């Protein structure tokens, strides 16, 4: 008998064991911690889990799950009755009024810096781009031009000198460049604008990401996010405010082999932070060591 579970079985097991309402992300984290195997397939399991829960609640009159709050969405077992619904709404109200809740996107920058440096998919150094230091331009000319944070992953930190020499002979890149657009909250109401903002200011990079501290877990949100990702390839990162290293790439970015050098040059001309960033990259690659200053990590 297989020990693999469906996404709905994973949700039921997580809720039954914790006896607490949970978000989709918390349910999936529980599954990973417990090393639960799923017999369901999908490139983005978190999205698939979310979809399975919402579809079952919507279409199955005998569903064992119910949604009891929004912002973020939390789920409970129907057998728990109404008590958890009232309690969860109260707890959520307290959470939203918590003084520790980030109010500005830049408060999240150290968290992202820690995540992308520790995450093996990135292992990147980042630098904040301050829009206010950009050169003045015609109204609207620089709209959605500058990313909030840029990042770099160096090949010399991964490969032996002989491999790097061969890489240069073959014309391979010395680094991978990333672009990050930050949001405190991401939900269905602001998803399209935030996503296209990331599309616009990530066009120059190898990979572009939309990053948020809180992400709505609604079926319409995930459907739209998957459609946008399939069309434009911008990834999505969910931060963990308490433990930055536990952040998650919930939607993968589609990598580009070539940089848009024209846009890189335009950014360097219009913003001194970005100019310093690419100057630092060139100097660090030249000496084969990270000697430049990048953003501090939590």
Describe the structure.
- The chain is an alpha/beta fold.
- The protein folds into two domains: 90 residues, Arc Repressor Mutant, subunit A, CATH 1.10.10; 183 residues, no CATH class.
- Helix content is 41%, strand content 16%.
- It contains ten helices and eight strands.
- Strands 3-4-5-6-7-8 form a six-stranded mixed sheet, with helices on both faces. Strands 1-2 form a two-stranded antiparallel sheet.
- It is elongated.
- The N and C termini lie far apart (45 Å).
The class by helix and strand makeup works out as alpha/beta
User: From N to C, what is the helix and strand string?
Assistant: HHHEEHHEEHEHEHEEHH
Q: How does the overall form come out from the CA principal axes?
A: elongated
The number of helical runs is 10
Radius of gyration: 21 Å
- The low-confidence runs, each spanning 5 or more residues with pLDDT under 50, are 85-99
As a percent range, the share of helical residues equals 40-55%
Kindly state the mean pLDDT as a whole number?
83
The end-to-end span amounts to 45 Å
Strand order of the largest sheet: 3-4-5-6-7-8
Q: How many beta-strand segments?
A: 8
Q: What count of domains describes the coordinates?
A: 2
Could you give a short account of the major beta sheet?
6 strands, mixed
